[in-house]
């Protein structure tokens, strides 16, 4: 068993590193090549890269775990995400692709905002870069937690005594492979590996639920209704605030730098629609598969009298129980793919902000392209080390960390990106206000525990007050600030 699983994983690791070397030879001579792949992404690569970097280990750990524990009612999170992603592709993608080129060929979101609102350029670049680095460090930590859990559940017996805890060894192994291809190959390596990883993920998420239901020990769905009362009722026990907190996950899409940067890198404006269709089709199949893993997996565990200590490991447990070692290795590689695709994207976006919006802006304005690429590689390593430290707590929950970071980005950047692309009266002061208020409200909400319990009642997901407060701040401050005679947004 160990030999077959290790063989599949070895093939996967070699493939990722090979892509990194290919990208190193193709697109790391300039900062535009290293940070955006020269804006030459094929629509299929852009689509699956956006999807894979978005879904992360949350798709195979967090969402199936929530459905396993609570039932179909947790599917509202997936529905909200699907609707948010669709609006993001329709409203944000084409405008951002066009306007980032128009406004000074911006390579990062902070640089675009600075070019769009030149009167507040420095403030926008600094504040947005700080938010990106802080929240992405937490987000990256969530992915590393997934890698640690994967190793503890499946890989520890394959590697023997490593001299450290299995959890920490899993974190370091995950981080090490991601760092190798991200630091070497930059954005093109991240995007190409995301494409391959997205293909692996969708195959795994189609295969797993079918085998769980119709393979040995399955029941073809007959035992699903016997798990617990209301398990298959999408509205069972759902309150208005609970529904709102679940469905509004979709608001986060408009402000996720690691997702929307893919829109900037698509090779042409006309390719955006093609990428949208591919990406939304991929996302639909993956979400259905993840829901199936959680729901059918719970029925399988109950029917066969098995035990699952951590609901977020249901995918791993089923992979180990049901499949031949070679297939198990493939399925675990799919989980690693989900984890690594997001970590690499987040590390690169954080790196781009540190290099373009701090180093080049304040320390070395005349830095050469080669110097910027090398500094970017160093920044990738620094953010990864901080994320490893945060992820070192083995009691961390993937869904909890992701939800906090997702809300932070969604509230700080979501209204800002939408309005900067569509509202000609928006001002630089309004943009700064939106960033600060959105991130501040989310931070306060989390610190006060109001996402768990608000005014003695049910908690409210922090993205809701953060998004609304940011939108109102942009709107109010922009109207109160004398508008510049600037070229309107397209």
What is the total tally of β strands? 2
The mean pLDDT is 80
Question: Strand fraction band?
Answer: under 5%
SSE string, helices as H and strands as E? HHHHHHHHHHHHHHHHEEH
Tally of alpha and pi helices = 17
Poorly predicted ranges: none
* The CATH topology: Sodium/glucose cotransporter
Radius of gyration: 22 Å
Under CATH, the homologous superfamily reads Sodium/glucose cotransporter
Helix content: over 70%
State the major sheet: 2 strands, antiparallel
Write down the CATH class.
Mainly Alpha
Based on secondary structure, the structural category is mainly alpha
- The CA-CA distance between the termini, in Å, is 57 Å
Pfam families: SSF (PF00474)
Subcellular location: Cell inner membrane; Cell membrane
Function: Catalyzes the sodium-dependent uptake of extracellular L-proline.
Transmembrane segments: 6-24, 75-93, 126-147, 167-188, 195-214, 234-254, 274-301, 313-339, 372-392, 398-421, 428-448, 460-482
Describe this structure in words.
This protein is mainly alpha-helical. It has one domain: Sodium/glucose cotransporter, CATH 1.20.1730. It has 17 helices and 2 strands. Strands 1-2 form a two-stranded antiparallel sheet. A hairpin with a 2-residue loop joins strand 1 (453-454) and strand 2. It starts with a helix and ends in a 10-residue tail after the last helix. Its main location: membrane. It is a multi-pass membrane protein. The chain crosses the membrane at residues 6-24, 75-93, 126-147, 167-188, 195-214, 234-254, 274-301, 313-339, 372-392, 398-421, 428-448, 460-482. Belongs to the sodium:solute symporter (SSF) (TC 2.A.21) family.
């Amino acid at each position: 068993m160990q030999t077959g699983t290790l063989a599949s994983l070895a093939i996967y690791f070699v493939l990722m590193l090979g892509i990194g070397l290919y990208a190193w030879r193709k697109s790391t001579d300039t900062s535009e090549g290293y940070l955006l792949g020269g804006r030459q992404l094929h629509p299929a690569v852009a689509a699956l890269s956006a999807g894979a970097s978005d879904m992360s280990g949350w798709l195979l750990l967090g969402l199936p775990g929530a459905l396993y524990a609570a039932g179909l009612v947790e599917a509202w999170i997936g529905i909200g995400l699907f609707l948010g992603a669709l609006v993001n592709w329709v409203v944000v993608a084409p405008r951002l692709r066009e306007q980032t080129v128009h406004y000074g060929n911006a390579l990062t979101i902070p640089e675009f905002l600075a070019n769009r609102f030149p009167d507040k350029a420095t403030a926008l670049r600094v504040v947005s870069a700080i938010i990106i680095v802080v929240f992405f460090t937490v987000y990256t930590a969530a992915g590393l937690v997934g890698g640690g859990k994967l190793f503890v559940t499946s890989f520890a017996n394959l590697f023997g005594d490593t001299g450290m805890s299995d959890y920490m060894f899993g974190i370091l192994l995950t981080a090490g492979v991601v760092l190798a291809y991200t630091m070497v190959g930059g954005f093109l390596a991240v995007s190409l590996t995301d494409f391959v990883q997205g293909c692996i993920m969708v195959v795994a998420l189609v295969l797993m639920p079918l085998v769980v239901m119709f393979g040995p020990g399955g029941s073809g769905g007959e035992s699903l209704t016997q798990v617990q009362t209301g398990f298959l009722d999408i509205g069972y026990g759902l309150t208005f605030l609970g529904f709102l907190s679940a469905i509004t996950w979709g608001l986060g899409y408009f402000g996720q730098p690691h997702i929307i940067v893919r829109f900037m890198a698509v090779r042409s404006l006309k390719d955006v629609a093609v990428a949208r269709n591919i990406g939304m089709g991929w996302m639909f199949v993956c979400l259905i598969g993840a829901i199936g893993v959680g729901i059918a997996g719970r029925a399988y565990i109950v029917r066969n009298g098995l035990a699952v200590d951590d609901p977020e490991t249901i995918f791993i447990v089923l992979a180990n129980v049901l499949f031949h070692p070679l297939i198990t290795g493939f399925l675990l590689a799919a989980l690693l793919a989900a984890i690594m695709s997001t970590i690499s994207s987040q590390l690169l976006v954080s790196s781009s902000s540190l290099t373009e919006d701090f180093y080049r802006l304040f320390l070395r304005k005349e830095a050469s392209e080669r110097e910027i690429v090398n500094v970017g590689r160093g920044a990738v390593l620094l953010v990864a080390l901080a994320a490893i430290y945060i992820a070192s707590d083995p009691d961390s929950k993937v869904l909890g960390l992701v939800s906090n970071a997702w809300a932070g980005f969604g509230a700080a950047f979501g209204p800002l990106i939408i309005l900067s692309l569509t509202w000609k009266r928006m001002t630089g002061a309004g943009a700064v206000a939106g960033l600060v208020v959105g991130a501040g409200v989310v931070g306060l909400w989390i610190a006060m525990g109001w996402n768990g319990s608000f005014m003695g009642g049910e908690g409210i997901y922090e993205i809701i007050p953060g998004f609304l407060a940011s939108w109102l701040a942009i709107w109010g401050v922009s109207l109160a600030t004398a508008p510049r005679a600037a070229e309107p947004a397209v």
